[in-house]
Amino acid sequence: MSPTSTDAVKSSLGEAGAQLKQAARDAGTAFKGAAGAAGDELRLGKAHVKSDLADSALAGIAAAEQAGTAASEQVDVLMDKGRDLIASAAELVRERPLASFGTAFAAGFIIAKLARGGGK
Q: What's the rounded mean pLDDT across residues 96-110?
């Protein structure tokens, strides 16, 4: 079974979270090391943090793109279901036009009564 766009979004968001965790760990390591080490360690830690944050941003962008694809797929599915429903209704009207007209008339009558406030 091939992964869906939703699975890809979940995967990318998980990766983004992992990258943010790593960025936090690298930041902590950099600050701890800076107290006892020279400025070179701080610069290296800063580079790691920037790299991890950039990776996180890229993973977040990928997740957003995949979320758009997943949403588009869901809209397509809903549109197909709507078309099927309309086709079924049209077929029913063709098969039983009198019953369809009667049902539509009764529904309209009830809606009109409700809109006027019941039985007034």
A: 87
Q: Give which of 4, 1, 5 is closest to 66, Cα–Cα.
A: 5
In tens, the pLDDT along 52-102 reads: 888 888 888 888 888 888 888 888 899 999 998 888 888 888 888 888 888
Query: Within 13 A of 50's CA, how many CA atoms are on the CB side?
Result: 6
State the Cα–Cα distance between residues 120 and 113, nearest whole angstrom. Answer: 8
Structure tokens at 95: 């098969």
Global pTM exceeds 0.70: no
Q: Domain spans of the chain?
A: 5-115
Residue 45: is its pLDDT beyond 80?
Answer: no
